Amino acid sequence: MSDSHDSSDFIKHLVNLFRIVGGVLVVGTVITVLIDINFPLSLAWAAVIGLSIALVKASFVVAIFMHYKWDKKLIWITWTMVLTFFFFAGMMGLILWSEGNIPKLDSALAISTGTNEIPTIWIILASMLGVVLPAAFTVLTVKLLNQPAPVEAAAPKAGRTAPKKS
Amino acid sequence: MEIPYTVKPRPDTGLYNAKLGIWLFLASEVMLFGALFSSYVLLRVGAEPGTWSMGLMDIYVGAGNTMVLIASSMFVVLAWAQLKQGNLAGYKKWKWATIACAVLFLMVKWSYEWPSKFAHYDVWLNDAKVLHEKFEKGYHETASHIEPGGAAHDNTDAHDGDVEKYIEGIYTTRFFKESSVTSEDEFKKAWENGTLALSGHINSYEEAQIDFSITRWKADFGVSRADATKVLAKFSEDKADKLLQDGGELYEKTDYDTAKLAEYELGQAGFTVALSVAGYETIKKHPWMWGTKRVNEDIGGKPRVKSLVFGLDETQHHQEITLDVGDIKRLSAYEPKHSTFFGIYYTITGLHALHVFGGILIMLYNMLPVGLALWHKDREQYTNRIETFGLFWHFVDLVWIFLFPILYIL
Fold first, then answer.
1. How far is residue B287's CA from residue B35's CA, in Å, rounded to a whole number?
2. What does the pLDDT read at residue A153?
């Protein structure tokens, strides 16, 4: 959290937020259980409802408990994680389409390509994402850790130039 | 070496180093758990109908544990807020509450959820006809009084088909969320082929009592006579010389472990021994993690366990039936090898529990004098350390938030 947010009032405001989020999480869990017990749902609906509630709960945890809301500087890490999510979702989607009991592609895409098989290019793109993501993550890590901070880089320079002047 | 930027944010990243570090670590954790989640979903969707036992999970225990973890997640952030305000006593209070919640979570897993599964069995039989007899015997009374939903039955005379209908109810809630054409078809198939399992606990069993005799001693085995006598003396002090010379009975009606240990040690000393089952003894115990091999093991042509008294699930007073070991095709506790479902279930919950355990260790370290020394040296750095731990702890909570609906509801 940045320095401007360190005031005592702000912390008090945060503590209130933490309590509210705690309440939201408990309510979310209770709703999940109540739905499961009271309504006989098919697997698909149970998955959609259960995971949606989980996603809402997770968003609150990340935004408030992990105070991501105030850590705007984490944007690069966020993008890595978002891409990771797309990678997993894409991989699962492809396998479900080819192996699972989910209907093959139909409608517009099938008509335009004249087949209801998954276009090969999708699989190639998904695999490339699988290479690009870990690579991006590695590069990001190495770059962040190797880069000298501007302030620190400036200090030794001044030190080196100083003796020459004298 | 002093680590730079533990307190002030680094100008280019805008974060103090530890925070950036923990977020990078969490990103790698997302990949680890993401892979396991994907595996779970794919295995779940690709499973043959009637093999995914998600109906066995106790949603109340799962929900209770979720609450405990949510509470701990809130406590850890409140602890950090106290530190931020310079209140060490308040911090300690919330931190101990966090540790207590984490320990409670692990205790529920370790001493209730997992162990209760290890003593819970599925038994598959060789013959469909025998299976139907066992079902009839075990469920007749319950099925004639109670509908699968739990409502009382009007007619006290059970007629044919009641038991089958009752079993179908159990089968549907265990493997399918609701009754459907698929579930009905699958049940009919499983019923006719006899591939349904009997579920319950082993209440007692008849275990072999073994007669153990020494046939002869091989002088050319490579062990000296004196050494062999010494080994034999461990088992029978006074008769050692005579047994070595002529052979003869060492134990009468001993238990399996004693006989097997003696067989191994004497075998190493060049003795040929013979084990035979003299009789069976009823033992009242709820054994853990038995497999088919464990009960079927051959001792001189007879099985190690003759029969099991099996207390059935979903019956009044856990109705007991007797199962002959010869009829059993497969016996498995609800352990990882039981099925794909339990395999991935233990993998994911186990890995998550390891994270919780690691978190407890770190929290304890931070609470001990050695960890608190940093607070007295540099308050801000200690506060930041607690914040980064908090980030890890919230992530562990986050994983559970997704695990709960996936494992207990889907």
1. 35
2. 45
Q: Which residues of A touch B19 (CB under 8 A)?
A: 71
Task: Name all domains of chain B by residue range, CATH numbers in brackets.
Answer: 18-118+338-408 (1.20.120.80), 122-199 (no CATH), 202-333 (no CATH)
Q: Grade residue B409 by pLDDT with cuts at 50, 70 and 90.
A: confident
Q: How many residue contacts between A and B have a Cβ separation below 8 Å?
A: 146
CA distance B89 to B343: 44
pLDDT for B332-357, tens place per residue? 999 999 999 999 999 999 999 999 99
Cα–Cα distance measured from residue B153 to residue B170, given in angstroms and rounded to the nearest whole number: 17
Q: In chain A, where are the structural domains located?
A: 1-70, 73-147
Test A88 with B35 for CB contact under 8 angstroms. yes
Among A160, A3, A79, A56, CA closest to B14: A3
Q: What are the residues whose beta carbons fall under 8 Å from the beta carbon of B146, sequence distance 6 or more? A: B152, B153, B166, B316
Average pLDDT, chain A: 72
- The model's pLDDT over A11-37, given as tens digits with 9 standing for 90+, comes to 888 888 899 999 999 999 999 999 888
Give the closest of B10, B401, B410 to A58, CB-based.
B401
Interhelix angle B59-84/B88-107, rounded to 10 degrees, is: 160
